[in-house]
Amino acid sequence: MDRGTVGSAQSGRLLVEVRQEGTSAVVTPAGELDHYTADLLREPLEEFLGRGFSRLVVDCSQLEFCDSTGLNVLLGARLKAEAAGGGVHLAAMLPVVARVFEITGVDAVFTVHDTLDAALVE
């Protein structure tokens, strides 16, 4: 399995790396996902969906912060992925980010995995 990064974008507080693993698109945001950085995540998610990937895996292991704008980006991607017969899988969330998902109830609408490897099992 190739785990090489095939693309990345960065803006101050957020770096987003993207790659393909099998039939999954893997997006790894590192840093702070908020109003100012949300487009850095939104764009590759929409690009993968536009290329026909309906199974998106978001590796959250390096995501240190996520506000409501970030949640909305993920929720929007989830709706589009599900409409295409797939879904968004969240992997390896840090406790501080997992807590935001739990408090808002958003964790109930995503498939959440403890590890990236678990999320990549189809």
UniProtKB/TrEMBL annotation:
It holds the Pfam family STAS. InterPro entries: Anti-sigma_ant (IPR003658), STAS_dom (IPR002645), STAS_dom_sf (IPR036513). GO terms for molecular function: anti-sigma factor antagonist activity. This is Anti-sigma factor antagonist. Belongs to the anti-sigma-factor antagonist family. PANTHER family: ANTI-SIGMA FACTOR ANTAGONIST TM_1081-RELATED, ANTI-SIGMA FACTOR ANTAGONIST TM_1081-RELATED-RELATED. Residues 14-122 form the STAS domain.
